[in-house]
């Protein structure tokens, strides 16, 4: 993670702050420059390799294995859905009085009808 992104993530995520041990009532989140200096110091002293080895040893003692992978951002964002039906007319969403969000305009959508049985 880039240093600026790491700073922003620490500012915005209570879970991440807990993970790294930052208590905002007692200390500030390190800024991007501080994170960069720490990362360079860590690389120069080969501390990353030593930490990874130690973490692997501890996890192996519990029967776990450390592997390599990719972290992907799965942020959910608001975006309008496609509202075009088969014949190209827009389907409008209206909110009924109880907040059900019923679809209107579906009768002209030319969707196949299925037989309904009564139970």
Protein described:
The chain is mainly alpha-helical and 119 residues long. It has 2 domains: 3-61, no CATH class; 82-109, no CATH class. The protein contains 4 helices and 2 strands. It has helices spanning 3-12, 14-20, 32-44, 47-61; strands at 92-93, 103-104. Strands 1-2 form a two-stranded antiparallel ribbon. Helix 1 crosses helix 3. The longest helix is centred in the middle third of the chain and has 15 residues, at 47-61. The protein is extended and about 50 Å long. Residues 89-109 have low confidence and may be disordered.
Structural topology:
Elements: H1 3-12, H2 14-20, H3 32-44, H4 47-61, E1 92-93, E2 103-104
Antiparallel strand pairs: 1-2
Helix pairs in contact: 1-3
Whole-number count of domains: 2
Mean pLDDT: 74
Radius of gyration: 26 Å
Q: What class do helices, strands and sheet pairing give?
A: mainly alpha
Total count of strands: 2
Helical residue percent?
25-40%
N to C succession of SSEs: HHHHEE
**Main beta-sheet strand count, sense and barrel state:** 2 strands, antiparallel
Shape: extended
| Individual helix count | 4
How far is the N terminus from the C terminus? 57 Å
Strand sequence of the main sheet, in spatial order?
A: 1-2
Low-confidence stretches: 89-109
Strand % is: under 5%
Give me a quick take on this structure.
This protein is mainly alpha-helical and 119 residues long. It contains 4 helices and 2 strands.
């Amino acid at each position: 993670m880039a240093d600026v992104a790491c700073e922003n993530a620490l500012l915005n995520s209570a879970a991440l702050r807990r993970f790294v041990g930052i208590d905002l009532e007692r200390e500030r989140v390190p800024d991007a420059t501080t994170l960069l200096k720490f990362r360079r110091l860590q690389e120069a002293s080969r501390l990353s390799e030593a930490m990874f080895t130690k973490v692997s040893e501890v996890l192996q003692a519990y029967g776990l294995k450390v592997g390599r992978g990719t972290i992907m951002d799965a942020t959910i964002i608001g975006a309008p859905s496609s509202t075009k039906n088969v014949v190209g007319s827009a389907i409008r969403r209206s909110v009924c009085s109880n907040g059900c969000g019923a679809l209107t305009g579906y009768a002209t959508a030319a969707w196949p009808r299925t037989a309904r049985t009564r139970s």
